[in-house]
Amino acid sequence: MAVLLGVDTGGTYTDAVLLEDETRVLATAKALTTRHDLALGIGAAIDAVLAESGASASDIGMAALSTTLATNALVEGQGGRVALVSIGFSDADLRRQGLEQSLRGDPVLRIPGGHGHAGQETCALDEAELLAALEPLAEAVSGFAVASRFATRNPAHEIRARDLILRATGKPVSCSHDLSARLNGPKRAMTAVLNARLIGMIDHLIGAAEALLLDRGIGAPLMVVRGDGALISAAMARLKPIETILSGPAASIVGARWLTGATDAIVSDIGGTTTDIAVLRNGRPMIDPLGARVGAYRTMVEAVSMRTTGLGGDSEVHPGRDGIRGGLWLGPRRMLPVSLVAMDRPELIHAALDRQIASERPGEFDGRFVVAQRGQDWQATGLDPRESRVWDRMEGDAHELGRIATTRMELSAMERLRARGLVMLCGVTPSDAAHVLGRQSGWDAGAAEKALRLLSRQRTGNGERLADSASEMARMILDQLVAQTVEALLVTALGEDDHGWNGVDPEALARHVLMAAGLDHHRGLLSLDAALNLPVVGLGASARAHYPAVGARLKTEMILPEHANVANALGAVVGQVAIRTRGTITVPSEGRFRVHLPTGPEDTGTEAAAFAMLEKDLTARATSDARAAGAEDVRVQVSREVRRSEVEGKEVFVEAELSVVASGRPRIAVG
Q: Which of 14, 50, 380, 583 shows the smallest number of beta carbons within 10 Å?
């Protein structure tokens, strides 16, 4: 009997599942994700699933990990402080593709160098300028991203810069050519920045998981789910953490297919921080040809075509979004639910809430707290003086927000600490509302009721209270959760539909007054109807509580399968190892075919010889990496995309891209 262990670490819960022979679920379990020490949550989930199943650690032949931590970090703007080494790019280049936004004020070193389209050096790398710029940054950042012009055609300058940075600082370095073989330097640079920012977080997670497996006597290899649903080794995931964005959502798609057998459906997975939506066609999720998009970022990472929105059970509740009419909006930031924090700190939370309720005048920070993430001290690199003062003031781990951030400038410093992952804010969330209405249990419903009572006292633009009671406030929050979920599903359906809608933005269409009228079955001089034309597979711990109303609103079948609450963990263990390598052939002059290899460009005299050289290199690298990632019985698929043009009646070779995929099931350890 082969027993497989799947673990999914999300923003709120860590899930575990044991699968027998890839066909039968033996046991499932959930534990709270413990961000200050991820090992605690992972260990609790593994211990629970082993106890429920009666299996022993020695029975486990393979372990796989999926996670939403990288996705959540990008959605919430979190991650370590990094420096971008930009080689040969101009300021205008850096403004493209949202690179300035992704940098968020982190330092940029503009160094002369770079190559041309054909891989020829256009400017020598200024090593002396790079070394001089590195000295003041060695202790101010957690890592470096390196991007050079046309590095995918010749990576020599990125490789040399990486070696110099490692020697001078010892900090991790992310090179853009290692993350994508495609052109578009600024976009590659942004992907490298995000990768560098995530290295510490994912390394911390994988280290915690590996230590837990060893501590429990589980000697099986650890795999990690990539954003396209494939498995890679833990070592590879540590080097390229950016590839784990959409890891959890991709695993959920694989899990949904395994659980339901659905071939054509929309899969919607609600977590604590995000709702992730993808379309299954003929049993397969579509891969996004433009690269994974998470929140505001469009990366060059291959991943499932997934729309991720900052909407979950722990989303921040914003009152008064609609001006004088009041109203609510949820997300995109995650908050620690008051009812959850009160479980560990009842005296602090209840005393503060009681004092705030006793005050006749509502306070700006009523019902809000801040919790220090002491296990994340490794992200405290490069704090400015004000951030350091606020951080040092937080003795212990939890405080009323208004007593720590006493000025607007300190509140801004607190927001920057939150972006680094050093603190988490606590406040009212949909999870608290669900506890007040009895739709969810397990946390401190009394604390939730007090926090919602405080929120209901907030005033709209015309001076009226948001709600008359905590229960009315709770219903408003959960109604808004349904409304925003409906909108997210409509945006996905409109965006993936073949119609095109004459280029009109899917978000604008989803929010159009005629769409709302159609969902309401408007009958007047016009008869309007709107509905989804595919069933929805609802996944996530809170799906059963919220998604029936979503299905009713969209007039479609809502499938809520057994084990929907651990679909990510299930998807982690039923996936395959798959490694893709890409390479390019260009023609710098007539009769010369240039093959762009990791070691630099090489020329040959014929098209056939160039294809043979590139295919041999790509196949060798993909097969080696797949075996290193734990694949058995590796299969190889090769595809070509050739561009030709007609010149004076003669067909001329312009450029070609080869793609090689090496795949296989992961090895299973035999005890």
A: 380
Nearest to 377, CA basis, from 366, 362, 388: 388
> Which of 171, 201, 240 lies closest to 379, judged by CA?
201
d(Cα 556, Cα 532) in Å, to the nearest integer?
6
Does the CA dihedral 531-535-540-541 come out positive or negative?
Answer: positive
Tell me the C-alpha distance between 362 and 360, whole Å.
Answer: 7
Strands (E), 206-263: 222-225, 231-233
Between the alpha carbon of residue 512 and those of residues 354, 487, 531, 556, the distances in Å are: 43, 10, 14, 20
Q: Whole-angstrom Cα distance, residue 433 to residue 358?
A: 21
Query: Are 443 and 339 in contact, with CB atoms under 8 Å apart?
Result: yes
Distance (Å, rounded) from C-alpha 84 to C-alpha 135? 14
CA distances from 140 to 108, 160, 587 (A): 13, 22, 44
How many CB atoms are located within 10 Å of the residue 398 CB?
A: 19
The answer, yes or no, to whether residue 324 has pLDDT greater than 60, is: no
For 221-238, the pLDDT digits (tens) are: 888 888 878 888 888 888
For residues 168 and 170, give the distance between their C-alpha atoms in angstroms, rounded to a whole number.
Answer: 6
Among the ranges given (105-119, 125-139, 146-160, 387-401), the one the predictor scored with the smallest mean pLDDT: 387-401
How many other CB atoms are found less than 10 A from the CB of residue 183? 14
What's the DSSP call for residue 146?
Answer: E
Q: 150 CB contacts (<8 Å, ≥6 apart)? A: 114, 115, 116, 117, 119, 183, 185
Are 570 and 16 within 8 A, CB to CB? no
Look at the block and give the residue holding tokens 């290199």. 617
- Of 156, 169, 178, 181, which is closest to residue 87 (Cα–Cα)? 156
* Site of tokens 């009646």: 649
Q: What is the DSSP letter of 66?
A: E
* Residue 576, number of CB atoms within 10 A of its CB: 15
Q: Please give the average per-residue pLDDT across 517-535, as a whole number.
A: 95
**String of b and e for 248-275 (b: at least 16 CB within 10 Å)?**
bbbbbbbbbbbbbebeebbbbbbbbbbb
Higher pLDDT, 308 or 449: 449
Considering the entire predicted model, what is its pTM?
0.74
Domain ranges of the chain: 80-198, 315-479, 577-664
Helices (H) and strands (E) in the chain, counts: 23, 29
The secondary structure of the chain in percent helix, strand, coil, rounded to multiples of 5, reads: 40, 25, 30
pLDDT digits (tens, 9 = 90+) for 125-160: 999 999 999 988 878 888 899 999 999 889 999 999
Per DSSP, what are the bridge partners of residue 39? Answer: none
Segment 72-102, tens digit of pLDDT: 776 666 677 889 999 998 888 777 766 776 6
∠ CA(488), CA(492), CA(495), 5° rounding? 135
Give residue 380's pLDDT band: very low, low, confident or very high (50, 70, 90). Answer: low
SS3 64: strand
Q: Is 80-198 a domain of CATH 3.40.50?
A: yes
Nearest 5°: phi and psi at 666? -70, 150
